[in-house]
Fold Protein CLP1 homolog.
Amino acid sequence: MTKVHTLKEQQELRLEISFEETVKVQLMTGTAEVFGCELLERKEYTFTGCKVPIFTWHGCTITITGECTNYIGEGVEMFKYLNTHTALENIRKKARENTNLNGPRVLITGPPSCGKNSLSRILLNYAIRMGNSPLFVDLDPNQNEIGVPGTINVMPMNKPIYPNEGYSLASPLSYFFGSINCSDNLDYYKILCQKLAQSIDERVELDEAARTSGIVVNTIGCIEKSGLDLLKFIIKTFGIEYVIVIGDERLSNMLSNLTLEPKKIKKEEEIKNEKEEENEIKTEKEEEKEGEKEKETKEIIEPKKVQIIQLKKSGGVVVIDEKERKTIRRILYKRYFYGITQNLKPSSMSTSWDGLGLFKIKYLEQAPEGALPFGKRSKLDPINVKRISPSSKLDFHIGAISFAKSTKKEDLLTTNIAGFIRITKVDEKRRRITYISPSSRTLPSQIIIFGQLTWYSD
Ligand SMILES: Nc1ncnc2c1ncn2[C@@H]1O[C@H](COP(=O)(O)OP(=O)(O)OP(=O)(O)O)[C@@H](O)[C@H]1O
């Protein structure tokens, strides 16, 4: 059954489509966008198992074919989201004009299901529409938008995130945490965040588009106690200058006094040399310029206050319960192995396990602080990995193919990942492993790391 919906300016048609239904959407007249990505007129978009807001700035007519819950709401928050984008765009403009300045480093936080991921998409899409190539950092191992669950990732974004396709899995830089909960090993999670942040700093140094476009960081929804400490750690590690807090004034307050240590400090010697070079008699204009330069250097050296931007949750955001999250994670694995539109067939391969290096990350139970004498930390190493022998216990496990150059613990745990396989069968008698992989080529590395991730059904 096809239904026509007419939207007035700044209204939003909100669709809630179950995993069993498929719904087709067509923009017939006017303009409309989904999470900031414009819909093309008359193009048919197919959605299944998701919540989709179709927003219009100036009014439109849309047809919906298929069964779903839907209603029209006022997209009042979109105006504030657009204002936020405009402010970020101004910072990018300044970065393009002045190589001493960088594009904005933005982090989005708030309680679970408040619209963090949706706002990340909106800000990324608006930035891309203006010709920027921001880096998108997804630090949520529970429901990672870029990679599979259990990973944290960064990806340069230079084409829109299409409404029914999500993020292309083209070239993310992935680190394998191996669990969907950061709290399973906070120390290890933090080390991976540091590695990711370091890679971003290196990229920003070399890539002009990344330098001026900045980064957008999506975080986990845990904001109490250790979650709050983790959030502060992430803000410092990634040098976040702008924190967008959705729908939680208390959190805004808790983050309000954060400062960043200066990253770029000009060495005294450098400054002295620059001054010596310019020891000629100066005109008034030159002196003025010099004053500005000194001010700039000073600004770089002084700790910078993190700015908090408080935004309201959109009226359309839907709370996702644990059962639905589980289904979404299964879909994310399926998307990895079967392609975004799930029309690819992964290769089923078999290999001898001789020559393979199989490792498992250990998630040690850490002694609660209260159980230790005051001021003492547990002596157990919280970050560990051990070599394992293949056994049928590995069936259905997700294995990360590591780029590690050695089997030293540090290399295994902190090297980025080439991709993933899912073990389908371990034949202990014949010493062979059967697995599926999105690529039919031989494994790019013999080192495979397992965590706690399994995927049972296709
Ligand atoms: N305006 C809207 N209308 C309808 N659905 C929406 C709207 N905004 C967001 N949603 C849906 O609400 C759900 C929750 O939003 P989102 O995933 O952005 O929240 P989140 O804070 O990132 O969640 P979490 O961090 O807990 O995983 C998603 O399914 C999203 O598609």
About this structure: The chain has ten helices and 23 strands.
